[in-house]
Predict the structure.
Amino acid sequence: LGMVLFAATLAILSGRRMRPRATWLIPVIAVIWANIHGSFVLAPVLAGLAWLDDVADRSPRARTTLLAALLTSLATLVTPFGPGAWRYALGLVANRQVTAQTSEWLPPTLGDVPGVLFWASVVLVGLVALLLARGSARTTWPALLGLATFAGLGAMASRGIAWWPGYAVVALAGLAAATAGPSTRVLSRRLRGSPLNAAVGAVLIIAGIILVPAWRPVDPGTGAPSGLLGHAPPGVTGALRALASPGDRIWNPQVWGSWLEFSVPLPRYALDSRIEVIPSQVWSDAEVVATGGTGWSDVLDQVGATIVIVDAESVQLRAVLAGSPAWVVAYSDGDGSIWTRAARQFASTPGVRGDSDS
């Protein structure tokens, strides 16, 4: 939803000189955005960049754009938390205890596909932008500033990559129009249709219909269309659904937490995707347990864990659990395993090993 509102804001601001009245929709979008997702901070950033562009271009609408940008900033305060929403958003970025725990908050690298695509696009866009800026008939530093800003967001954290493509396309389009001259700077004439564009649009629509999840077979473990969910192990989910009871306290991998809470809601879980509200001590405990470090058993005892879920990558935790008489494996597959207290009685189900109390 945040990305939809980001795209809507970009579309309105990029066409503000053709449809100036639409600019007043930006504060309205900002109110909705601030009540939906922490990325709302980008609304005043985009409006501010639009104002700088008008100033550099000596547009008579610069004052109007500035007023819209100020109203957009004020509109982000219209939430149940008021200024607290800004403290939340900015505090989350600055919280190294949180950002160091999840891959989406780590900087993109050349060691994975998203990182390679991002850095390659930054280099390509940068070269094209510099060439267009050199041939432009007007000052283009606001566009270059915007590109640097959104490239910086992507460089800081992998989740920041999401905003880069949309802004880069709009900025390059603006630079290209400025280079072509004033006659094409504002597209006031009706453009003729293109058979190639129509064909591309038709292919995208057909592909979208084919990829609708409703056509896919349902995964019996997750209860969702196959291939739809990430971080949702079907075998572990199905086994936990049969094993868990309302009184269970489950120690789980953080990346699976929210899915398990949704799919098997009765027990209580140690970790989920609300990473900004989990105390720092819990993160420290999670590191100890995940690595099978000194005191791992004490952590599980202190929280009263009755079930431990281990993903396939946590080899050390699996090893210490296997070597402890207090825990028995109840289920295991390629995604991970489920371990229960040896003193806990659980029902024998298909794919789940039944054990009597020790």
Q: What stands out?
A: The first strand starts at residue 249 and ends at 251.
